[in-house]
Amino acid sequence: MLTEVLKQVIGTMEILDHRGIEEEILRIAIQPELSAYNSSYVFLAMKHGLTLAAGDNKLMGKAKKLVEAISLGESTTL
Predict the structure, then answer these.
(1) Structural domains counted in the chain
(2) Closest to 24 (Cα-Cα) out of 4, 49, 9, 41
(3) Distance (Å, rounded) from C-alpha 53 to C-alpha 70?
(4) Handedness of CA 50, 53, 58, 61 (dihedral sign)
(5) Which long-range contacts (CB under 8 A, 24 or more apart) does 62-68 make?
(6) pLDDT tens for residues 19-78?
(7) Quick one: which of 57, 13, 63, 18 has its CA closest to 38?
(8) I need a surface site. Which of 7, 12, 21, 61 has the fewest CB within 10 A?
(9) pTM
(10) Is residue 5, in this structure, part of any structural domain at all?
(11) Which of 23, 31, 19 is nearest to 67 (CA)?
């Protein structure tokens, strides 16, 4: 049953591309002192109206100032 649910979830996933938005990502990285890597996730969540889910508490503390964000522990209740 779990494998079927995971197949359905993966089947609906869309790959988001960061090309062409590097400047915006770096602008976000400078403000809350996030890495460019983490800022790319924050920016893509903002751009697409998504909730950011991550297990990194430091990232979550900074990201919550910019976008709706939940820790992976909280996401199991969705």
Answers:
(1) 1
(2) 41
(3) 5
(4) positive
(5) 62/32, 62/33, 62/34, 62/38, 63/32, 63/34, 63/38, 65/32, 66/28, 66/32, 66/42, 67/42
(6) 888 888 888 888 777 888 888 889 889 988 989 988 888 888 888 988 999 887 765 554
(7) 63
(8) 12
(9) 0.65
(10) no
(11) 31
- Enclosing domain of residue 66: 19-75
Residue 71, amino acid: S
Q: How far, in Å, CA of 45 to CA of 16, rounded?
A: 10
Tokens of 37: 């890597």
Rg from Cα positions in the chain: 14
Would residue 33 count as lying in a domain?
A: yes
Residue 71 within a domain: yes
